[in-house]
Design brief:
Residues 53-67 have low confidence and may be disordered. The longest helix is centred in the C-terminal third of the chain and has 16 residues, at 307-322. The protein contains twelve helices and twelve strands. By secondary structure, it is an alpha/beta fold. The chain has helices at residues 4-11, 15-22, 32-44, 50-53, 88-101, 118-128, 141-150, 171-184, 206-217, 234-246, 261-273, 307-322, and strands at 71-76, 105-111, 132-136, 153-157, 166-168, 190-194, 227-229, 255-258, 283-285, 302-304, 331-333, 337-339. The radius of gyration is 22 Å and the shape is elongated.
């Protein structure tokens, strides 16, 4: 069976549009021409609808249908296109792959930006009659609480809720490992680039807490001027890093820990444009290990996060939850790994 992403790539429409057409979702207008094109492409790729997958009387069920064609929804807290996002895309691919292996159907993948409010999510949940839902990172509390009341099983990825199974990695320790590496390289003036969570308070953001903890354990202070809260926006990161480098009278940090590779890459461009050397003048370490990080100039040191594995595990745990195998909630932390590349591989004397 092709995935939603396979079909979306073939026809050139978004994964949301493909999902709505294949699930006969009429909540938004989609032209007949678009629907025809999507169904044609789906059939060419070997897609089988739920109705077609049902066994005829007296016949055996198709392989992979043991899970009863359960409908699974996925809500992602991400401002950009979810299937083109270098961090979220591998997670979603892992979810879809494992659900397919378990004979379940991914009813839709939707971002908070695509949900217009509680009425929209209520209609979405009721129309698809979800058996389970995967929440990828924190979403609005009112929407989240409604989903927990209506959907039989919920699993979270990187969310803070002790009442449901959660798949994650230790963000605090991952950030600490990155900053500890910079300290070991001789850096004492280390900046931070990141953003806030749902609370809007950067002091509570786990990667920032890891950054501060590493400095404190080394007896170092963080200069407030080196803390860049760019709201996870690469354009803002570039602008703020440029301002830091261009402002007279401000000490420039010798190293930067960025809470995502995308922000590290954006800041590295600002540094390179001013003729500064990486890592001799300013070293960089990111976090995520997105695919492009190994191709930057110089290659970016980062913390590898097992993104696809996180998605696959979340899908497996959700199906187990539906089948009653996990009566108690738990939190599973997958391992991370520091990858040292040229952007920080320089001993500062």
């Amino acid at each position: 069976m092709p995935t939603l992403k396979d079909i979306a790539q073939k026809v050139g429409f978004s994964i949301s549009t493909v999902s709505r057409v294949l699930n006969n979702d009429m909540s938004r207008h989609i032209s007949p021409e678009t629907r025809t094109k999507i169904w044609k492409a789906a059939k060419e790729l070997g897609y089988v609808s739920d109705e077609e997958a049902k066994p005829s009387p007296g016949s055996a069920a198709k392989p992979g249908a043991a899970a009863g064609g359960r409908q699974i929804g996925c809500i992602v807290s991400v401002p950009q296109n979810k299937y083109n996002h270098p961090y979220f895309s591998p997670i979603l691919e892992g979810i879809e792959k494992k659900l397919s292996e378990l004979g379940c159907s991914l009813a839709y993948v939707i971002t908070m930006k695509e949900i217009e409010g509680e009425k929209a999510i209520r209609r979405l949940v009721q129309e698809h009659k979800l058996d389970g839902c995967i929440i990828v990172e924190g979403i609005r509390p009112d929407i989240y609480e409604y989903i927990k009341k209506i959907v039989p099983a919920v699993v979270g990825i990187d969310i803070a809720d002790p009442t449901v199974p959660v798949i994650s990695y230790d963000r605090v320790q991952a950030a600490k490992s990155a900053v500890a590496h910079l300290i070991e390289q001789g850096h004492r003036q280390i900046g931070f680039i990141g953003g806030t969570g749902l609370t809007g308070d950067i002091e509570r953001e786990k990667r920032y807490r890891g950054y501060r903890a590493a400095l404190q354990e080394a007896g170092l202070e963080a200069d407030p001027q080196w803390i860049i809260n760019s709201g996870w926006d690469v354009d803002v990161t570039y602008s703020r890093m440029s301002e830091l480098l261009d402002t007279n009278g401000i000490r420039i940090p010798t190293a930067i820990f960025a809470a995502s590779d995308m922000m590290a890459i954006s800041a590295m461009r600002a540094v390179a444009e001013r003729g500064l050397r990486i890592p001799q003048d300013i070293a960089f370490v990111g976090l995520d290990n997105i695919e492009v990080s190994q191709y930057t100039s110089p290659p970016l040191s980062t913390v590898h996060i097992p993104k696809s594995e996180i998605g696959m595990m979340a899908a497996k745990v959700l199906v187990d939850q539906i089948e009653g195998h996990h009566p108690l909630p738990f939190r599973m932390l997958l391992p991370y790994r520091l990858l040292i590349r040229q952007s920080s591989d320089y001993i500062r004397k």
